[in-house]
Design a protein that fits this description.
Layout lengths: L1 H16 L3 H12 L1 H9 L5 H14 L2 H14 L4
Amino acid sequence: MEKNENEELARLEEEIKNLPGRAQQAICWIIENIEFVMDMCKECDMTDEKMEEYERMAAEKEDYMALFLLCIAKKCKNKDF
C-alpha cells in the first residue's frame, strides 16, 4: 500500500512540475491553505452553469487560482470529496 502511495505522490509531483509556474503557485497555495479552501468551497451556492461560465473565463485568462478553486467548489457541491 505504501509503495502505491509513494508512486502516486511521485506521479503527482511530476505532473505539477510540468504545469506553468502560475499554476504551480496556485496549487502550492491551495495545499498550504486546504482547510480554508475546503470550508470556502463547501459553502458555495453557485449554480453549476454559473461555475462552468466562470471556469471558461478563468481558463481563457489563464487564471489558475480561480480555475482550481472553481473545480474544488464544484467537487464539494456535488459531494465528490
